[in-house]
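Observation: inputs received (chain + pyridoxal-5'-phosphate).
Thought: call the complex predictor directly.
Action: predict_structure
Action Input:
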Amino acid sequence: MTVTDHGREVLNFYAGPTALPWTVRAQISRDIVDFHGSGMGVMEISHRYVPPAAAVRPRPGARYLHLVTNNTVEGTQFRALPRVGVPLVADMSSDLMTDGFDAAGCDLAYAHAQKNIGIAGVTIVLIRKSMLGKIVARPGELPAILDYRTHVSHRSNYHTPPTFAIYVTWLMLGWIEEEMGGLAALGRVNRRKAATLYDLLDASPFYRGLAERDSRSVTNVTFALPTARLHEQFLEEAGKAGFVGLAGHRSAGGCRASLFNGVTQDMADRLTGFMAAFEQRNQTREHRDQEGSSDE
Ligand SMILES: Cc1ncc(COP(=O)(O)O)c(C=O)c1O
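Observation:
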């Protein structure tokens, strides 16, 4: 959460780029001017210096199966990775490093950093060595930069990478390990944040959760208000109260609260507090409206 120069509180629920932990942002602000006492700003330093950082079936004859482990738009997530008998390639852009995961079930996983692991500019790729031998393109048939073999043989230093974005990822990994107590502990925190929202949706006759219960995402909670008018009013009042980024994806509509690693339990509690109060006020008003119209 942030207090702006104008003293206004902002609680960032955007779907990415999105909230970073406060301590990571504070460290960035120090390191921009002087990176760990080096006398150089982090953007001035060479990259050589930066620390290393079930129902799914493939088509017959498929060489691999690609899936998205967490659907950021709909707010759905695979509970477990399917075992499909062909290599599994997973876009984990919205849930890698939010909890432990079944790495053994994955042959290639990738995730951009700007949701849970830093800022835009970095994509993390995990590739099984055996997969490298399955690449059918001969050297030179693929542009070198698009060929994973290039990046493996150059130890991810083939070209000048976005050093600042990698530096923020490094800070995020340290934050996960040292401040959050590791991935399993972080997973518990993230599941509790999500449960805070889902419990409210389940108990409410006013809000409607949009994802099926068994497929609910831990990182993106999607829901709808009873009417279009209440939807608009909800977003407007939420904005005034400092909650930003709650509109659903343009292709899905409704509302969405994204609870990525940088979003705290306190922020989730305050959002549910706001939602409960909004429901209370507007249920009563709707009720009055209905009574008013029946009098006519
Ligand atoms: C799961 C997932 N994959 C891919 C993307 C697209 O990412 P990029 O804009 O980095 O290509 C998004 C967008 O937010 C996403 O949520």
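Thought: report the result.
Final Answer: The pocket of pyridoxal-5'-phosphate is lined by residues 16, 68, 72, 91, 93-94, 112 (CB under 6 Å). The chain has a mean pLDDT of 89.
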